[in-house]
């Protein structure tokens, strides 16, 4: 039966291997497929990353260009005569820049008719008595009377009255502008007015305070263009331009503003919430506020060419790679610009991935037998390795256990010999020395057994309440058993402490620390100090000795298995501190070196607060 039991794992491994083989082949093919897909995804990611880099670079350049022209936009919004080349502003859904050549839906030429009626010194019909419009015409007629028969002062007063009424009563521009143009034509026909006055009326305006500013006719006509029919606007623009030239008032910007007015609005979506390119990529616009969009005209081909050169300079594009921007529709979000990267090297990588896929797929079937053998051998070797480990551990446990019995017998005989030769001077201290060496050997055997049990996880703590001070006293009694009787012990803060842990393990922990303190010590008496401290989250026991200390270079390794402090003549297995570390871990705590020097070493044992209580 024993050989069958020994062969059973191998048989099960072989049977399992046969079943796993087909599953493994399927998984292997799946891995090959996934590898091909990952290769394709990686290549696609490289293309996408290059395209995204180009897109983000373009977006940054567009943002910088819009920011650089912010002052131009502000000036164009404030001054209709300011240049508007390449500027876009949409406010409350209406395009303000570039300005549109809008016209009123009203038919005919009402503004020109009003102008001609006033020049004939006639009152327009249907003006209610006492209305601001009628009063404005009356002031104009008074100005005409002063111009025909009055002196300079009366003309000045009449002009001032007319301008004051204009500042106080804001009439619609379709009535105000023709009247003012008629007044200036009348004035220039008979007088030579002050150039500053003419520039103020025609170009710069008067006053700065809100509600008291008189807009210049050039600005006002441009602002109110959509209030006039095409014929009226052209008539008034011509009269204002003529008045400006006659008065030597600059008129070039006024004429340029008229000529540059767009005939149609820039096509755009009803709602724009993010940066976009409009009109097939001719304009870049972005949200400036909740009611306003701002943008600039752009020329994408040179920008894309500059981006491609930069990417080549940075090594992102190879000489054979190309970057292109697909044709744009009327409105395209900047975040989805269709940049495309054509890279022969990536095409070659795709072909190589496809070739690797078919090569690996071809070898899957041929690898079936070899895979089965590898699985079986791996299982067998793994089992043998574990068996060797078990044999080693069992050997250590067996040898250590077998050493206990003869050691106990030798110690008993040494004690008997010591009693019988007590009065024989020639025997001297040989029996006592035999006993001490046997105790040292027994301690070593006990450490090996404890280490083996802890290392294999066979020693699970059997927790019970343990009086810490009583446990320390027991350890001190054990030291006397080893012939160490010149130890001075000092304790503080542990008299009423009870630990809920494994008594045997805790005793082994303290005995190893105390034994090390005595072994690695060249001073007499040996001083040991134990101090307990409870900070709420943990309970710390500090054990300080006056030994030779542990060099700083070795402090990080002394808790490892079979590590001994170099440079000392003391004997030891190198397991003591390793056992201490495993014991503390088994109780959920830890051990560390608080400090060490040639004057001694302080070990800190940190127990979790849950396993500590006080009897006071």
Descriptive account of the structure:
The structure is a single chain. This protein has 616 residues and is α+β, with helices and mostly antiparallel strands. The chain has a six-stranded antiparallel β-sheet. Strands 10-12-13-15-14 form a five-stranded mixed β-sheet, with helices on one face. Strands 9-11-16 form a three-stranded antiparallel β-sheet. 55% of the residues lie in helices and 15% in strands. It is elongated and about 165 Å long. Helix 13 (368-420) packs antiparallel against helix 14 (430-455). The chain has helices spanning 2-68, 70-78, 110-119, 132-149, 152-168, 173-190, 195-204, 217-223, 230-246, 252-259, 300-313, 344-366, 368-420, 430-455, 468-481, 503-519, 576-586, and strands spanning 87-91, 94-97, 276-278, 283-289, 292-297, 322-325, 331-333, 339-342, 463-467, 487-492, 497-502, 526-534, 538-545, 590-597, 600-608, 612-614. The model has no long low-confidence stretch (mean pLDDT 82).
Features:
16 strands, 55% helix, 616 residues, elongated, alpha+beta
What would you say about this model in short?
The protein is of the alpha+beta class.
